[in-house]
Amino acid sequence: MPKSETLRASRRNVLKGVGIATVGASLAPAGMALAQGTPAAPSAAKGPKLLEMEGKAKLIVLGDKPLNAETPAEMTDDDVTPIDKFFIRNNGLVPDAPADAKAWKIKIDGEVEKPMEITLGDLMSRFPNVSYKMMLECGGNGRSFFSPEARGNQWTNGGAGCAEWTGVRLADVLKAAGVKPSAVYTGHYGADPHLSGDASKPAISRGVPIAKAMEPHTLIVFKMNGKDLPLIHGGPVRLIVPGWAGSSSAKWLTRIWVRDKQHDGPGMGGFSYRLAKTPIVPGSKGDPKDTVILEAMPVRAVISFPADGARLASRKLDLRGHAWAGENEVKTVDISTDYGVTWKPAKVDAPPNKYAWQRFTASLDLPSAGYYEVWAKATDSKGVTQPFVAGNWNPQGYGGNPINRIRVLIAS
Amino acid sequence: MPKSETLRASRRNVLKGVGIATVGASLAPAGMALAQGTPAAPSAAKGPKLLEMEGKAKLIVLGDKPLNAETPAEMTDDDVTPIDKFFIRNNGLVPDAPADAKAWKIKIDGEVEKPMEITLGDLMSRFPNVSYKMMLECGGNGRSFFSPEARGNQWTNGGAGCAEWTGVRLADVLKAAGVKPSAVYTGHYGADPHLSGDASKPAISRGVPIAKAMEPHTLIVFKMNGKDLPLIHGGPVRLIVPGWAGSSSAKWLTRIWVRDKQHDGPGMGGFSYRLAKTPIVPGSKGDPKDTVILEAMPVRAVISFPADGARLASRKLDLRGHAWAGENEVKTVDISTDYGVTWKPAKVDAPPNKYAWQRFTASLDLPSAGYYEVWAKATDSKGVTQPFVAGNWNPQGYGGNPINRIRVLIAS
User: Fold this and answer.
1) Chain A residue closest to B402 (CA)?
2) Are A341 and B386 an interchain contact pair (Cβ–Cβ within 8 Å)?
3) Can you tell me the ipTM of this complex?
4) Is B269 exposed, middle or buried (0-12, 13-18, 19+ CB in 10 A)?
5) pLDDT by residue (tens digit) across B338-391?
6) What's the CATH code, domain B4-53+298-410?
7) Angle (CA) A384 A388 A389, round 5°
8) Neighbouring residues of B190: CB distance < 8 A, sequence distance ≥ 6
9) A202 interface with B at CB cutoff 8 Å
10) CA B160, CA A240: separation in Å to the nearest integer?
11) Which of B190, B224, B271, B299 could form a disulfide with B250 if both were Cys (CB 3.0 to 4.6 A apart)?
12) A14 secondary structure, DSSP code
C-alpha cells in the first residue's frame, strides 16, 4: 500500500510555490495557516534544514550538536520504517565504530547472583534470537506543540518509527545472571561520550523498573530490519525498551547495572524525562520535586498520506497513517474534516505484534473544492484519547500528543 | 444566581500581578498561556482599553471610531443582560437624540399595497406590544479566534447579549401595509450618519428575507429591559431580528423598504456579512462572488463564572455560563478539564422564550491543585456542535465559534 511513487506524486502535487526541497512539516505555503495556528511545524519560510548523510533520507534536522533529525509525516507511510527514514536522536557524541562488532563487550552487574561480561558474539549465540516490529519514540516527540515553547528539540510527530528489531531478550540475559530479589530498577550505559567530548563527564544513563526490563519484548538488539544495526542507530548493539521514552533504549550498550533502588543516572533527575505531577502554569519554572518519571508514551495518530499542504485533484481522498499507544493497543482512529464538529471512524489494522504501530486508512469524500484541515485522533484500549491541544505543560515538553492536523487543498 | 458580589470576589481572586482594572479577556497574566495559544483575547500586556461612558459598565473597547465595545465574559453572568453591560456596536456615527421620541417617523414602502409613514407614538398604540428576552449578537462575534487575523473589530465572545426587548411585531406592521406577493426581502434604514459625517455617503443598510421579517419574534423595539431604548442602543426605536447577525437589527430605524429582490444596500455586498461558499485558504484574498450571506449565528457557549484567570481556593468549582444557537435551541453543553479527552454534561436550562440564551451550570471536582483549562462546548437541537478551532476562515472573519476556554489556578 505505501508506494513511494504515490509519495513522490503527492510531493509533486503540493501547493505551487513550494519546491520539492522543502518537504515535510512546511509543505504548506506561508498563507495556508492551520486554523488557530497550531505550532505544528518548525517555522520555515525557506523550509527546514534537511539532513545530508550517507544512508539516510532527507530528514528534518532539529539540532546539529547533538545531531537530532525527525521523519516528516509523509515519509512515515511504510509498514516498517526503512533505516534511511528512521529518526535520529542523540544525547552525546556518536562513538567510533568498533573494528570487531562481535567482540563488543556488555557488562551485567549489580543485584545479580552472577555478574557477567559477555561479548556481542556470545550473546547472539547463547540466547534465543527474536524479532519484533516495535516502536521507538523520543520522549520529547510532540514537544513543538507546547505553548509557550518548552526546552529541547522541537519535535513535531516525527521522533518515532517502527522498525523490525532482532536481538535477545534482556530477560533471558538477566535470568542467566540471576536477578536477586533485591533488584528494583536497571541502569543502562552506552559508549557515547558526553557532548563536550570530555571523557570525565557523565553521559546519559537511564533505566527502567525491573518488571519492564523483564518484559519479553525488551530486547538487546543487534539487527534493524534484518541488517546489522547501523552505528547512527546504536550499532553494533543497543537496547529496545518498546513503548517507553526512547532514552531508555540505550544505544552502544556497554552495561546493565541492576539496582536495588530507582536508577539515579544522568537523565533520571531534574526535569529530564519527567512530567509535572499536578498541572503547572504553562511557562512557569516548575519544581523538580513535583515531577514523576515519564514511562510509556501516550497515544498518537499521524497521517502519512496525503502530505500536509497537498494539492489534490479530487474530492475523494484515500487517507493513510499509523497510530500507537505506548503500552496499549490502538482501538479506534477517528477522522474529522470540519474542525472536530463531526468524526468518521477510520479502519484500524491489528498490530503484527505488541508494540508495533497500527495502520489506519479512511476514505473521505470532501463536500466541495477548497481548503480543508484533516484531523486524526486515536483512542487506545484503555479508552484514553488524544487531547485537542498539548496540555499539561512541563518545562521540557514531554507528553505532547494533540490530535494530528494536516491541510489539503482540493483543486476546483 | 448571578451575584455581583461573586463576580467581584472572583475578580479579587485573579492571579496576582493583575489589577482590578484589567478585567476580562486578559485576566490571566502573561505567563499563564492557553495551551497552544488560542488567540482568545486582545493582546494586552497592560490590559485592554476600558469604556468610560455614563450609564455603561467598563466594557472592553475594540474600536473608537466607530465606537465598538464588548462585554467581558465574566460580566455576562446575569440572566438578562443589564443595559450597562450590553455590548456596543456601531457602523457609523451616533445620531442626535430626538427632542420628541414619539414623533420619530418610520416609513414602510416598496412592495406593499399601502405605503405608510408612521410615528413611533402611533406605532406603540396601534399595534400589540410584546416583550421577549432575545439574543442580539454582532455578526463578527468570535472574529478574534481566526488565524491569520481577519479584518474588523477583534471580538472574542462578548459581542452578544440577551436583553428583554419590548416592541411591536414587524409582521403586524407589514401586514397593515399589505405585503404584495412580489415581496422577497426587506431593506432596513437608520438615522446614523456615515462614519465620515458626510451626509451624501450611504450608511449601512441591510435586510432579511421576507419570511424572517414576518417571523413573530422580529420586532420594532422601543424598550430594553423595561426602560426607554437608550440612544447608544438604537433609541428611540430599532429593529431586533433575533438570532441573526446584529447588523440586520437596524438602530435608529427610519425606513423598511420591502424589495422584490434580495436587498443590495451597503453591508450586503463584497465580503460584508458574507461567508465563503466553499472553504478558502486562510489568509487568502477570496472572491466576493464565492460568498453567501451570513444569516443565523452559530451555536456558542460562554463561561461567565469563574473568570478566565481566576485563582480558586477549592478544587470544587461551580461553573456557570450561557449558550445560544441562532435559530435553534441549545440541547447540550459539555465541559472538559483535560483538553478534550473527557467531557461531562452541564445542566442546561430551557430558554424563557425562543431566541433567549440558556443558562448552563456544572459542578466540577478537579483532581488536584494546579493549572487547568476549563472548556465548554454547546450542541444545538440540530446536532451541530462547536468546532475546536475557528475554521472556515473568511476575509472578514464571520462564524468563528470555537469552544470556549478559560484558565483557572487551584491554590494548593
Assistant:
1) A339
2) yes
3) 0.90
4) middle
5) 999 999 999 999 999 999 999 999 999 999 999 999 999 999 999 999 999 999
6) 2.60.40.650
7) 115
8) B95, B203, B204, B205, B234, B238, B250, B251, B252, B253, B254
9) no
10) 56
11) B190
12) B
